[in-house]
Structure formats: structure tokens, C-alpha cells
Amino acid sequence: MAPERVMEKDLMDGLSIFFVKYLGFWGTVNTYRTSGKVNLLFKIQWFLTFLCVPFPIFQFMSPAYIKFDLEKATIIILNTTSFFQMTFKQAVYSMNIKEHAILLEVMTKDILRSLPEYKKPHAKRIFEKISKRCNFWCFIAVVITFTAVSLWTMNPCISSEYIANHVGNMKDVTTGPKKILGGWYPVPFTRSPWEEIVYAYEFLWFFWIGYNVAIYELVITMEVLTLHAQMSVLNYHVSTLSKKEIVQHSGKKGLTQREVEDLFYQELLAIIRDHEMLLGYGNRLRNCFNAYITMLLATGGLLLIASIFQFLFGAKDAVVSVNYMLYLLYEVAEFIFLCTATTMLETSSTNIAFSIYSSEWYTSDKRSRDTIQMIMIRSRKPMSLIAVKMYPVNVETLMSVFQFAYSASALISRMVE
Questions:
Q1: Is 8 exposed, middle or buried (0-12, 13-18, 19+ CB in 10 A)?
Q2: Which of 94, 206, 290, 386 is deepest in the core (most CB within 10 A)?
């Protein structure tokens, strides 16, 4: 029997799905969850992606038709790499849509079966606190992405004449129309009507890139942070384990010591089942995003280098600088959200050992102590997203990427000088 559709009323307290709902992810994944089939929107998304395919093909052809220098090369590489990054993200999402349908359960509030009713008010506060952070991050991601898309499309800053016929500083080329993307086409795109056709095509291309980027950034942020929220609630539950409270809320009176130990042991078994369930979701999340993150670190690093070079060392023009600053801001925000959220998940997953050590384990019998030891051993390996199936992604990774990108950009600028 197919799983039920996840409804908004089932979501953890305070979590907003406004953006993923109206950008189409929520409906697509929920449809697949209940029917095993993709909806019409999913097919339209791939159709629009195929419409963008000619652009990178033309850029691979361009060295045979136009002259290059380092500034022009970075402009063309920037947009071409963005397309490959977006397409790869869409492919990874499509291949793992079944896993995403299962991971919707992580966003719900009642998956921890071991959590007793009397602890749910405090769990609600934990959910609300982390959901508030998640909602804010999603809002910032959408604002940055669509601000960058809007300014790039409303203020085209790439000289068509420079792309077609010149090298050197783009600011020195004052003739010819402006275009949105730094790309070459096998048509006279510096003259009408091709100028208008190319502008319309690049408008569609850039808008579609921004739309997809927003979806996948929101998805990975929400899935990682909601799993972190579930693990944080389990940490709270484990750290406050008390035999007295267990007996008090069991409704049973006059229990012997052995019966109290049995109740405590049954509570531990329920916690183990919840912990194993969350570890299972963590493994699904890791498998879903391993290829995604590997590609993101590779192409994202290249995009950072090109963006930093153009912003700091490229044409000194106000419109160009603002556009590349926003492009750079988007790349930086994507890395910050991903690495920070993963670090939080790592911390909450390994804190289980400390939390259970804070409980009344020392008053338990050997059976319960052995069970507690098992939980502590299982929590020694942090729950984390990884790249190339071995490198964990965290704040240290973030700083390494930023340092490498700036150093490479500075080196390229010295080569130009």
C-alpha cells in the first residue's frame, strides 16, 4: 500500500513550506509518494531544461569563431558552468525522487514514537526554534536568488560586441547592444532581430536557472535542518530520562524494583528504534546528496573563482560589479547554508552519547546499561553529508573552499597583470 500524502497539518511546529509548495517541489514529491508517478510539472521542468541545452553547446564551439582572453573566458565559463551545475542538480533530484518522497516524513512532528505526551510541549518549542531558523534561511536563499536573477535580466551588462569581436577590458567597448549572458551564438547576435531573439532566449535561460537553483537549495536546507530538529528532540528526551517520571506517567502503582527496571528498559528499546530510524533517514539523505555535493564543491568552487575574479578584478563598471556581487553572494550563501546546516546535524547526532550519559543510567541494571552503551557506540559516528563518499561537509570545508577560491582568483589576476 502506497504511503499517505504528507499534509501541512502534519508538519513539525512552525515549519513553513510556502516556497517549496509554490515552486512545485511539494506537489511533485507528494504526488510521487502516493502514486509512484511524476506529475505534469516535473515533465515541464525537464522540457524547459532541454530548451537551454543549445547554450553550452554554442560555448564549446565558440573558440573556433571568436578570440579569447582571460576576462572573456571567465565570463563564458561562469554561465556555462551554472547550466551544468543546475542540470546535474536536477538529474540527481529526479533520480532520487523516491528518497525525497520518503524524507518528507522527517518534516512531520510525530515520527518519534518513544516521545511521551508529557514531553511534547518542550519538543514543540525545540521544533519551533529550529523551524524558525529554517524558514529564515529559506527566505534569504529565495531573496538572494531572485534578486540576482531580476537584476541580471533587467540590467544586462555584457557587451555583445565585446563577446563577438574584441578582447581586453570589456568596459572599453562602448558600441553594440548589451546582453544578459556572456555567451557566443552562431548567428549575428549583435544586430536586430537576432539581438532581441537572443535577449529573450537568455532571459528564459537565466530565469530557469534561478528557479531550479532556488528549489534545490531549499530542499537540501529543509531536509537537513528538519532531521537536525528530530535529532535535537531525541537528545532532549534521552537527557531527561527518569525512572520516577516513567513510573508516574505509566499510571501503574505499587511496582516492584524489577517492574520499574522493565519499564525503563522498554523505554530504552523505544529510543533505540527511534535512533535507528533517524540514522536510516540520515543514510538516505547522505546517499541522495553525495553526488550533488561532490559536483557542488567542484563546479561551485569554479563559479566562486570566476565570480570573485570578475567582481574584484574584472571591468570596473557599477552595473557589472553589482551583478557579479549578487552572483557571488548567491554562491557564498549556498555554501554557508549547506555547510552550517550539516555541521548542526553532525553536532546533534553525536550529542546523543552525552545526552544519554546525562540520564539516570547509573541507577539501572546491567541490561539497561548495556543498551545505553549500544546507543552511545552508535552515536560515535556523526550523521553528515559527504562528498566523494568520504569527505564530510562542514564549516571547515566551507572555510577551505573560500580560501581556495580567493587565492585562485588573486593568482589569475596577477597572471593577467
A1: exposed
A2: 206
172-201 pLDDT tens trace: 787 778 888 888 899 999 888 999 999 999
The predicted pLDDT at position 260 comes to: 84
- What amino acid is encoded at 17 in this protein? I
Q: Which of 320, 316, 313 is nearest to 414 (CA)?
A: 313
Q: How many CB atoms lie within 10 A of CB 302?
A: 19
Here the cell at position 193 is: 532581430
Average pLDDT score, the chain: 85
Res 2: pLDDT: 64
Task: Find, among 13, 14, 39, 43, the residue nearest to 26 by Cα.
Answer: 39
